[in-house]
C-alpha cells in the first residue's frame, strides 16, 4: 500500500507521503528510509523502529527528535549520541542511561569537552574497526545483558520515599467507549473489559516483566525491541531515573572504557526500563509508553491522544478503541495503520476516510463499506457506488448482524483481515 504523494518506494508497504523507502513498513511523511518500521516525519533512517521527527539515525528504537545518533533507545531530543537509553534533552553522550540535560558525558559522567572528545575518538574508532571487519555491531541490549553486579542497593530505601499511588478512573474511558460504539454501531456497549479479547485481537501484545529492585510488575510492548530487554536489568521508570541521577562512572573508569570490556565498565549504571512517560499524562492506566495523553487504558503506547483503550500508538487522536497506529483520527474502532479517519470501523491502511466500514487501502472514501484499493468514493458497497438509500439499507443489515454477535459473543467475528476468506 502506497498512499498520498509518494514515490521511489521499493519492497515496502504502508507508506504515506514518503520518498526513497526501501524494505520498510508503516512509513509516513519521511524520506531516505531503509530496513525500518513505524517511522513518521524522518529522513536518513536505517534499521530503526518507532521513531518520529528524527534524522541521520542508525538503529534507533522508540525515539523522538533524534539527530546523528547510533543505538539510541527510548530517548528524546538528543543529538550526536552513541549507545544511550532513557536519555532526554542531551547532546554528545556515549553509553549513558536514564539521564537528562547532559552534554559531553560518558557513562553518565559529564567531562570537559577536550577530555570527552579524546575518549569518544578512541571508542568510535573501535566501533568503526569492528563494523568494518565484522559488518555488525553489538546492540545496546546485548551489551546491557552482559553486565554483572548491581549499583543500586545503597539507594533502595530512598526510592520508596518517592513512590506515588494514583487511583485509576475507568469511568471516563467507559463513557467514551459507549459513546463511540453508539456512534459507529448504533448501540451503546458497556463494560469494555468484556470485549477485551476482540478489541486487542489485532493489536500488538504486551508481556509482563518485573523490576529487579522492587519486584514490581511492568509491561513490555512487542515493538521497538522492548521484548529484547534483558530481564536481569529491568527496573521501573522511577527507579531508572533515580539511578541515573545518583550513579555515574568516575573519571578514571570513563578513561578505561573499551569496546571489548564495555559491559563490565558500565555495569553500575546500565539499567533499562520498558516504561516511557513524557509530559503530563492524566488517568493513563496500564500503558507502557505515554506521551501527553489522557484517559487511556491497556494500550502499548499512546501519544497526544485521549479516550483510548486496547490500542497501539494512537497519535493526536480521540476515542480510539481496538486499533493500531490510527493517527489524527476520531471515533474509530478496530482501525489499523491509517490516518485522518472519522467514525470508521474495521479499516486498514487507509487515509482521509469517514463513516465507513471494512475498508482496505482506501483514500478519500466516505459513507462506504467493503471497499478495497479505492479512491474518492461515496455511498459505495464493494467499490460500486450504490447511492445513499441502498447504502443505508446495507449498513442497517450489517449493524444488525454485528450487534447481535456482540450481544451473544462479545465480538464481531469478521475483521478486515479475513473479510474475504472462506469459512
Brief overview:
The chain is of the alpha/beta class and 423 residues long.
The Cα radius of gyration reads 23 Å
Strand fraction equals: 35-45%
Mean pLDDT: 94
Number of strands: 30
Distance from N terminus to C terminus (CA atoms, Å) equals 26 Å
Estimate nothing, just give the exact number of structural domains. 2
Shape: globular
Unreliable segments (pLDDT under 50, ≥5 consecutive)? none
Helix content percent band = 10-25%
Structural class computed from helices and strand pairing? alpha/beta
Mind summarizing the main beta sheet?
Answer: 13 strands, mixed
- In DSSP terms, counting alpha (H) and pi (I) runs of 4 or more, how many helices? 9
What does the oligomeric state look like here?
Answer: single chain
Amino acid at each position: 500500500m502506497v498512499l498520498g504523494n509518494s514515490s521511489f518506494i521499493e519492497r515496502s508497504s504502508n507508506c504515506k507521503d514518503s520518498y526513497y523507502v526501501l524494505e520498510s513498513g508503516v512509513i509516513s511523511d519521511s524520506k531516505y528510509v531503509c530496513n525500518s518500521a513505524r517511522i513518521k516525519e524522518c529522513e536518513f533512517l536505517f534499521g530503526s523502529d518507532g521513531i518520529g521527527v528524527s534524522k541521520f539515525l542508525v538503529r534507533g528504537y522508540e525515539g523522538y527528535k533524534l539527530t546523528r545518533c547510533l543505538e539510541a533507545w527510548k530517548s528524546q531530543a538528543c543529538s550526536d549520541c552513541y549507545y544511550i537509553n532513557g536519555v532526554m534533552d542531551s547532546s554528545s553522550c556515549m553509553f549513558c542511561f536514564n539521564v537528562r540535560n547532559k552534554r559531553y558525558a560518558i557513562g553518565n559522567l559529564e567531562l570537559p569537552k577536550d577530555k570527552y572528545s579524546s575518549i569518544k575518538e578512541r571508542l568510535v574508532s573501535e566501533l568503526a574497526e569492528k563494523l568494518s571487519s565484522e559488518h555488525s555491531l553489538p546492540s545496546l541490549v546485548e551489551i546491557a545483558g552482559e553486565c554483572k553486579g548491581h549499583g543500586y542497593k545503597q539507594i533502595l530505601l530512598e526510592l520508596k520515599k518517592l513512590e506515588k499511588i494514583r487511583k485509576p478512573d475507568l469511568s471516563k474511558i467507559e463513557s467514551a467507549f459507549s459513546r463511540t460504539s453508539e456512534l459507529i454501531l448504533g448501540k451503546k456497549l458497556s463494560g469494555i473489559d468484556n470485549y477485551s479479547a476482540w478489541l486487542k485481537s489485532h493489536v500488538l501484545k504486551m508481556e509482563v516483566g518485573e523490576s529487579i529492585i522492587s519486584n514490581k510488575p511492568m509491561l513490555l510492548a512487542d515493538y521497538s525491541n522492548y521484548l529484547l530487554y534483558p530481564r536481569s536489568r529491568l527496573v521501573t521508570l522511577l527507579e531508572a531515573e533515580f539511578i541515573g541521577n545518583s550513579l555515574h562512572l568516575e573519571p578514571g573508569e570513563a578513561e578505561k572504557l573499551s569496546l571489548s570490556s564495555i559491559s563490565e565498565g558500565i555495569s553500575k549504571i546500565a539499567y533499562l526500563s520498558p516504561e516511557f512517560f513524557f509530559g503530563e499524562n492524566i488517568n493513563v492506566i496500564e500503558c507502557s509508553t505515554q506521551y501527553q495523553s489522557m484517559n487511556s487504558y491497556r494500550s502499548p503506547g499512546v501519544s497526544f491522544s485521549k479516550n483510548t483503550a486496547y490500542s497501539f500508538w494512537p497519535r493526536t487522536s480521540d476515542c480510539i478503541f481496538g486499533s493500531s497506529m490510527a493517527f489524527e483520527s476520531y471515533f474509530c474502532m478496530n482501525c489499523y495503520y491509517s490516518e485522518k479517519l472519522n467514525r470508521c470501523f474495521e479499516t486498514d491502511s487507509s487515509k482521509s476516510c469517514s463513516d465507513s466500514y471494512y475498508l482496505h487501502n482506501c483514500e478519500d472514501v466516505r459513507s462506504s463499506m467493503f471497499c478495497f484499493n479505492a479512491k474518492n468514493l461515496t455511498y459505495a458497497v464493494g467499490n460500486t457506488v450504490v447511492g445513499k438509500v441502498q447504502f443505508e439499507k446495507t449498513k442497517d443489515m450489517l449493524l444488525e448482524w454485528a450487534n447481535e454477535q456482540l450481544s451473544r459473543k462479545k465480538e464481531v467475528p469478521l475483521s478486515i483481515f479475513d473479510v474475504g476468506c472462506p469459512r
